[in-house]
Sequence to fold (621 residues):
Amino acid sequence: MSKRRIFWKFYVPFVVVMMVIMMVFAITGEKGIKDFYLDEMESELKNSTEKMAEDLLLHATKDGTLDSALCQQFINDHRLPPLQRIVVTDVNGNLLAQSSGRNDVISNFTSYPEIRTALAGKIGISLRYVHSEEEEFFFLTRPIFEKDQTELKGIVRFSYSFASVRLLSKNLMQKIFIAGFWMLAVWSLIAFPLIKRITYPLEKLRSAVVDLQKLDGSKLVHVGPEESEEVRVLSNALNDMVERINKQVKKISDQRSERESIFSSMVEGVITVDLDGKVFHWNKAACELFQVPYGQNYKGKPLIEVFKLDSLEQFNNRISKQGRLREEFYLKNGTICEIQGTSLEHEGEKRMGTLMVVHDVTRIRELEDHRRDFVANVGHELRTPLTAIQGFIETLQDGVDDPAIRKRFLDIVQNHSFRLRQIVEDLFLLSNIENDVPILKSNFTKISVEKLLDTLKELCRDKYEKRNVTIKIVNSINARELYCHKNLLELALSNIVENAIKYGPEGGTVTISTEGLSKPQISDGIGKGQNSISSTEYINFKIQDDGPGIPIEHQERIFERFYSIDKARSRQTGGSGLGLSLVKHIALLHQGQVFVSTNSNQDTRNGAIFNFQIPLNEKSS
Fold:
């Protein structure tokens, strides 16, 4: 269906109405002209027939009756106007005389209605089409009476061709149509701006309504004071409605934006599914968890098609039956997800679909595993020395006569008690480092790197002299000072050096070197991604031994609590199992990192290399 503007809906009917009026006017004008000429013709012919009847009585009678020859002579001598004809009959309707110009001869005229009317003594009038003449004629007949109006002597009939009237009417109609055309053109030109003025505000109202339909309420309708009251009231009402709708749309848009921002910022994945199992809302976290592209439009697609997980589809089906559900899913990429699902209901009655909130609990489960491992390791590490102490004390209580054996047992008890004390102290220290960061940082001070290396060598003297290990120090930035927690840094570096001495060969070499870095090195080990400091210069303490090295599969885990590559050897050497974990936390306290590598990935016999990197944070050189 074609859509016409309101202007044309006004203008076209106006033109059509004007044309109809002109046609009605032309038709009624034609009829009026015809009626006018008929009235004029009737009046003229009445006078003509009356005079003709009187003249015939005076000049065409013989022996008191109308004589045919005299009547014909009289008519021939009578000058008639063009297109006018005369017929004279006797009282029986028989022809007595007629004017020239007829194509046929009729002897009796009683069959014509106007003649019959005249024979009855009345004036007869008739307008009819004459087939022999192929023309329309107006007939008027008058009876011819004696002067006393008592005796009928004959009938005189005047006829007048309507060709002149029709020609005149045609000319007048042409003039009327021409005048009407120009009047219509003038009125159309006048009506165009008038209707435009009326419809222009309505067009603006229509445009505003269309924009409003498109939720574009930026265009208001402005009408001038010259407009009609109805248009101004309508435009004001529409503007008020537009402003209210704009406020509502903005409110809804803001709420939607807030909701989208909240959903996009949520760590938890959010998925909503309709009753047909098709997705109608999702957020970025959900796409990341299930490893599907976030930027695509999944609305209206089946849940299984989008997230490609049969168990998720089955979970959704179970929610529709149970209403609320919580389960864990193991994804192919190793992620563990806990999904909480509940039915979506409209006003608490009609069910609309399903809401699923997806939590990534991988880290939590890992921490739980670490906690279980930690509890088990702590229990194991504490139980071993306690069992040994308890066993030797019970043996001593039973009595040991040999002083040498008694002393050896007491030394063993003392060594295990020292190890037990070291484990407890290291655990307290780890807890303090994790929980008291601000207090520990308040104890940071500036120390000389060279002095730090000398102190480190002195701290390890007993260990490397006992195993005849050579300590080699290579300090490439000996003029630098370091801003750090002195005691904790010495503890971390001494733990690494003592491990290098302990696990390296007797008579081997441990190299302690320093180097300046513009930024932390990227490692595939434990320190990757842990740097967040904006310092532009770092120091790297590199401790390298010539021992067996650390296998690649253990390099990431050796910084965990109580993790040991060879637990039996660790107990024999008296370690607490917390040394490298302390090293890692001390590096993090200094906003640095620590990682281990070997000289060759193929041969771990080239020794282990520990890199302890922290920012210098110098205030002055």
User: Anything to note?
Assistant: The domain at 436-615 is CATH 3.30.565.10 (Heat Shock Protein 90). The CA atoms of residues 389 and 414 lie 8 Å apart.
